[in-house]
């Protein structure tokens, strides 16, 4: 699904077919299928009956995988690096997510307390929400 010599597009496609999505992640199509079935990768969208994977959803899911030699908890802790004005793109605080959703940070915290939105604590105290969980919630997909 790469650009052909006659293509005039200068940007990557947003939607990817199964083979292109697997190639985008650098894995065999069979492994891609297994990860989708297990819920570790997102389900496709259906465009006129064609299964198409959103590149942004694939990026978010990919970021949730641990790095070689890291445990899941080490990855979570490493994703929490923030500066005062720009949060790390892989996690949200209740405040930054509230800005995205145009609601209050307390509303986000209440969603977490009710179990409607997954979150984790950094340093045992600070609430963080993974981008992959935000995308899943926004898409209305069950966890």
UniProtKB/TrEMBL annotation:
<protein>
    <submittedName>
        <fullName>Helix-turn-helix domain-containing protein</fullName>
    </submittedName>
</protein>
<dbReference type="InterPro" id="IPR009061">
    <property type="entry name" value="DNA-bd_dom_put_sf"/>
</dbReference>
<dbReference type="InterPro" id="IPR041657">
    <property type="entry name" value="HTH_17"/>
</dbReference>
<dbReference type="Pfam" id="PF12728">
    <property type="entry name" value="HTH_17"/>
</dbReference>
<dbReference type="InterPro" id="IPR010093">
    <property type="entry name" value="SinI_DNA-bd"/>
</dbReference>
<feature type="domain" description="Helix-turn-helix">
    <location>
        <begin position="91"/>
        <end position="134"/>
    </location>
</feature>
């Amino acid at each position: 699904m790469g650009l052909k010599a006659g293509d005039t597009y200068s940007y990557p496609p947003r939607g990817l077919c199964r083979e292109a999505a697997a190639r985008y992640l650098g894995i065999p199509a069979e492994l891609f299928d297994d990860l989708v079935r297990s819920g570790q990768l997102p389900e496709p969208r259906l465009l006129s009956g064609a299964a198409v994977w959103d590149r942004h959803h694939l990026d978010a899911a990919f970021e949730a995988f641990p790095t070689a030699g890291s445990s899941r908890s080490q990855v979570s802790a490493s994703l929490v690096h923030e500066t005062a004005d720009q949060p790390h793109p892989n996690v949200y605080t209740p405040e930054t997510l509230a800005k995205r959703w145009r609601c209050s940070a307390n509303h986000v915290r209440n969603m977490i307390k009710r179990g409607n939105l997954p979150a984790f604590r950094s340093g045992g105290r600070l609430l963080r929400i993974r981008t992959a969980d935000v995308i899943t919630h926004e898409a209305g997909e069950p966890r």
